[in-house]
């Protein structure tokens, strides 16, 4: 297990898969209140995760920066996204960075767009009229997606990540795709078959990222939330990029590239800022990888949550 101490945040060890049995903060506090006064305080463990690697080169570089200079320890990679090869070059050999499959069945941007690795003709229930994945979960539900097609596509995404050099340890969900009926069971089966960690309920334990008018307010909000965490296992995720021309190339109606790059650059800064590091240290939070968390819990199963 890794404890955030000093200015360095060491890497968590590899481990087994985890059966995650979420408990409410109230029940945790109540259970420990009954212990003797000399009992150690229950831990606060924090998964720090960067999503949407491979969406653009700026994201790949920013995630590496947040790992090397901050507290980010896990990265979720999108196999159908346009900069996968660049992501593999930048991230696959980063020692101690825990790699996950960011299971992708949606394509939310006007530019770029992506679709199934198997091709639209092989999985017709997963694509819209453009041949790409639909833009959001409601659009995916309206397609009434075949779970057999989803299973084959997501297995192919995992294979693609491994083929370009990623040592995949966990699986999670792009845009919460597990909420589409049947997909969560598909992902749980995929995790079981390939020995991956899959913790969908951890998404319900997120440290919420505030949206203040400045980076200072934004970072201060995250630091405050970290200091107030009860005991338990939590997730701090962001979508790091640099505020550069490459990131500004991602856009959709109502969300221009300039806003995208600015907001998500601030998410990168959250992982690197001293105020966040100090909050982690002061609260005694253990910064962990998915495999490190699994090792401390000692479980061997994934979670099949309700879709």
CATH class call: Alpha Beta
Q: What is the mean pLDDT? A: 85
CATH topology (fold) name: TIM Barrel
The figure for the number of domains is 1
Question: What is the total tally of β strands?
Answer: 6
Q: What would you report as the Rg, rounded to the nearest angstrom?
A: 19 Å
Q: Ends: how far apart?
A: 31 Å
Give the low-pLDDT segments: 1-39, 299-307
In helices, the fraction of residues equals 25-40%
Within CATH, the superfamily carries the name Glycoside hydrolase/deacetylase
What's the shape?
globular
- Class from helix and strand fractions: alpha/beta
Number of helices: 10
Strand content: 5-15%
Architecture per CATH nomenclature, i.e. the level-2 architecture: Alpha-Beta Barrel
Q: What string, H for helix and E for strand, traces the elements in order?
A: HEHEHEHHEHHEHHEH
Main sheet makeup: 6 strands, parallel
Q: Layout of helices and strands, plus pairs?
A:
Elements: H1 25-33, E1 44-53, H2 57-69, E2 74-77, H3 84-91, E3 98-103, H4 137-142, H5 147-163, E4 168-173, H6 183-194, H7 215-227, E5 232-238, H8 257-272, H9 274-283, E6 285-288, H10 290-297
Parallel strand pairs: 1-2, 1-5, 1-6, 2-3, 3-4
Helix pairs in contact: 2-3, 2-8, 5-6, 7-9
